[in-house]
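Protocol step 4 of 5: obtain the predicted structure for the target chain.
Materials: sequence only (see below). No template structures provided, no constraints applied. The aim of this step is simply to have a reference model before the mutagenesis design in step 5. Sequence pasted as it appears in the construct record:
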Amino acid sequence: MNAFWDAAGGEIAHRVPARPGRMLAHQFRVVFPIVGLALVLAAWNLPAAAQSSDVYVCAGPNGVPEYRNGNAGKNCKKLSLPDVVTVPGGARPQANRGTGGAGTSASSTSFPRVDGATQKSRDGERRGVLEQELQSEEAKLSALRAEYNNGEPERQGNERNYQKYLDRTASLRDDIARSEANLASLRRELSNLKD
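Step 4 output (structure tokens):
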């Protein structure tokens, strides 16, 4: 398999032979956007021998330079490129499973606590915000249902084309379904709050 870089098109491609040692007349090309020759070689996850292979610049068809690895052929010059360096990722720290928490490594005594009065005021603020959102969503839903008019909304002046009317009707139906789902979610959040 030969890899080359088309300098005019700014892309890297593979040529896959039909049989070993032969190339197809109509070669199969998989095109990758060029990020950098070294990055692409590292991303291919080739064996170490193939990653450290030599890279050649060759005169391609129509005078467009091609970059190849391996068998260079005629009209090619070897390039001296820096080696690709890979750094293995560090190991993740083990979570302290003895705390009974959600995999946190902090002990239960060092975790900050909030007194009951502060938590009640926060819960009250949250309930107020959720109730306001619920009221505005209910108003939005009633306006959408009125405009939808049981699937037969009033035609607007810019809807001479019937398809525009059908598109707006479908959009209204989707908006109503989304608003109903939002209302159900807000009601569920309110029911989960402690009294």
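Step 4 remarks: The helical segments are 37-43, 48-51, 116-148, 162-192. DSSP finds four helices and six strands in the chain.
Proceed to step 5.
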